[in-house]
Every structure is written in C-alpha cells, then in structure tokens.
Amino acid sequence: MSQTIPATAADTSGTIDLASGKFPSISVRDTRRGSTLAFLAWTLAVYDFILFGTLLPRISDSFGWSDTTALTANTLVAVGVFIVVILVGLIVDRVGRRRGMMITVGGAAASSFLTALSTGVASLVGFRALSGFGMAEQSVNSVYLNEVFALTEDKVIKKHRGFFYSLVQTGWPVGALLAAAFVAGIVGLFGEDSWRLSFIIATIPALLVLFLRKGIKETPQYRLNVYLKDLAKQGKHEEAAAIAERFGVQMPGGNYIGKIFSRRYARNTVLLCFAWIVNYFAITCTSLLGTTMLEEVKDISPGTTLLIVTLSNVVGALGYLVHGWLGDRYGRKPVIVVGWILAALFWTAFVFGPSTFTFTLVTYMGSLFFLLGPYAPLMFLQAECYDSTCRATGSSFVTAMGQPGTIIGSAILTALVASSISMGTAAFIVGAGGMVFSGLIMIAVKSPKILTH
Fold first, then answer.
1. Given its phi and psi angles, is residue 235 left (phi above 0), alpha (psi -120 to 50 degrees) or beta?
2. Which chain regions cross the lipid bilayer (predicted)?
3. Given 1.20.1250.20, 3.30.70.260, 3.40.50.970, 3.40.1260.20, which CATH number is that of 254-453?
4. Minimum mean pLDDT range among 53-62, 278-287, 408-417
5. By C-alpha distance, which of 324, 374, 379, 330 is closest to 164?
6. Selection from 104, 217, 246 nearest residue 151 by Cα
7. 20-218 — its CATH code?
8. In angstroms, rounded to a whole number, what is the distance separating the alpha carbons of residues 283 and 150?
C-alpha cells in the first residue's frame, strides 16, 4: 500500500502522508493568493448580477416588452439561477475545488457575453440562467477557503478565519457600487441603448480572473477524497476506511443530495434552507427593491435615493467585516441571530419613522449593516456544517434557496399591495418579518465545530 499521495503539477499543495493522518500545511502565499482571487471573482459575480437588474428596464425597452413580460423573464431567470447554483455544488464535490472555481468564473463570463447576444425572452432567460455560476461563487469560495484556512501556515488568518472570509464577502457591496458606476458611465458615453456593450465589456475582467485562477492549487482535503474513492473502486474498502478514520473524515461517494439530508446533516440543512428563504424576503425589500422603497415609502427624490443607496452600500461592506470579526470572537450563530433581529428594528424605524434625510439615511444604513453583515459568518458556518465529502453540495444547495426566497417574497409583497395595503406596511410585514423569523430559525441550527482539517 502506498504511504503517500504525491503532489502533481496541477495540485502542488504538498505530499499527503497517509501514515501520519495529518494533512500538509498550506503556505501563506497560496492562502493569500486564493483569498484575493476569491474576492475578485465574487466582486465580478455580483457586478454581473446587479448589472442585469439595473439594465433590465433598458433591455425591456429595446425588445418592446410589457411590464408583465419583463417580470416574467426576471422570474424565469431566478428559477434558472436556482437550478444552476445547486448543480454547481454537485459539480464541485465531484471535480474538485480548483476546477469548480474555474467553472464558476468561466460560467459567469459566458453569461455576460451571451446576454449581449440575446434576441428575445427565451434566449435571455437561458443565457442569464448561466449567471447562476457566478452566484454560486460565494458558496464555492466558502468551501475552498474553509479548507484552506484550516491548514494555512498564516497564524493570523487561521485565528481570525471568519474575519478574513468577511473581507471576501465585501465583494457584494463593492460589486454593486462598481455596477452602478459602470452603467452610469456607459450610458453617459454611448446612450441608453448601449446595454449590450455593457455586458460585453463585463466579460473582460472575468476572463482575466479566470486566467489568474489557473494557478490556484487543489485542497489536500479534496485530494484525499479522490484517493479514497479510487481505493473503494479497486475494492480496497477496508484500507480506505482505515485511512479515512486516521484522518478523521467520512468516506466519500454515494448520492450527494441524499447525504446532506442524511441523519447527520438533515437538521441543519432544512433549517438553513428555511432561514435563507425567509431572509431573502427581507433582502428583496431592502436591497433588491431598495430604490423603490426609498422613493415610494419615504418619498425621496431619485437623485437623493442614489446617494443614500451608495452610502449605505459602503456601510454594508463594513457590516461584513464587523460581523465576521464578531463571529470569530463570540460564535457565528449568535452573531447572525442578533444581527438580523437588530436589522428588523432598524427597518421598522425606517418604514414608520420620519422622512427626513438624516433619519432615512441612518435607518436604511442600519438595516443593510445588520441584514447583510451576518452573511459573512453565515457562509462560513454553513460550510463548517458539512464534511469535505459533501461540503460544496450542502453549501450550494442551501445558498440556492435565496432564489425561491426572492420569488416568494416578491409575490407576497405584490399581493399585499394589490389588496390595498400601503407599500410601507407591506414592506414592514415582508421585510421585518423576514428578518425576525430567519433570526429565530437560526437559533435552532446546531453550531458546527470549527474545522481543524
């Protein structure tokens, strides 16, 4: 029997000594390189996502769509993204973290480029569904960095891994701000019919990150999984089981979806799914429909609305860092719960408080700070909930639930307004309700152990 798993040209993260039961460490350089590229890839994924939402009215006008057609197209895109995000998790557990990260960036770049070639509803929905590769980026990042941070030689990152992951998560507000600035620049230079050019240009930085990611190394944890699978295929089940026990890991293989709903993981899988769905009711109100809420609920002018949204996204980035740091210090679950409850208080004040600029700015900032910030510890926590054999599947499956959450939340909001309930009251019910209930659901989630391998 071989006593080591040698490093290869593509996966030079060190030789794995099977007799020791210990994984090789990951260098400081490789840790920081992987983290930086994860941040850039997530920023570009968000950039593409926000770009589509911002340009949808221009796309609709160019095709001569009615509001109903545009809404239907957007809903179908959300369904497509949901399916793709789940598939990405399955792919990453099968082909590896390194290849998975290449696939997500490549898929996002393809989605941007193909969107520019859309000729109608069917092609647009199909091409935008591929943006699910980009949206899966955050779950793939959390899986990869969880495994890297557990073995890194960088003692500072290892001690404050949640905080350093939160730096990657700030790609959301950064990407949103870049998209807004980019659209303003392109429209200003080339006119409102230049939406196709916007998507074509967006592929360039994505392709650059794809090229740079070729240098990322596979994690030792996944390499061991591959080795154990090969032993099992050769009929060496006892040898594989002995090695798995020595390293303190589960035997890979089997149905990945079935595994995340097995007795060991079912509780957290179900609870996290519901938490994502319900919390995205709030995301829909505060973030995706933020400008609508500011203009219709608070009667803020479009120019002032843009200023408030921009400043609030900057504060939102700070929220990721603060909650990531607090999660390392006080535990990820309690920080998530408290954050979302506080977000509900700020959102309630936003809806029912005075419409002065200062009060609106502070309450909207507070809502985003405490709503978005907990996603930094949440993403890291849910990756810790699963072992390396199904970690990508579990994290991606749970993350995908944000898409049905958006659809359901939008439907509830629309139904409430259609029944003659004011936009403000509807925003309170859906937004604050989603924040509170998702926080309460998280209380029942079983806190996982911090990864040591």
1. left
2. 37-59, 71-92, 163-189, 195-213, 269-294, 300-322, 334-353, 359-381, 393-418, 424-445
3. 1.20.1250.20
4. 53-62
5. 324
6. 217
7. 1.20.1250.20
8. 31
Is the model more confident about 172 or about 129? Answer: 129
Token code pair at residue 203: 């592929």
Shortest CA distance to 21 belongs to which of 3, 34, 35? 3
pLDDT at 11 exceeding the cut of 80: no
**What DSSP string describes 4-23?**
EE---SS--S--EETTTTBP
Q: What pLDDT, in 10s, does the model give residues 247-282?
A: 888 888 778 899 999 999 999 999 999 999 999 999
Question: Across-strand partners of 16?
Answer: 5
How distant, in Å, are the alpha carbons of 58, 61, 64, 286 from that of 67? 12, 10, 10, 22
45 versus 291: the higher-pLDDT residue is 45
How far lies 224's CA from each of 142, 151, 173, in Å? 19, 14, 36
Classified as helix, coil or strand, 231 is helix
Q: pTM to 2 decimals? A: 0.87
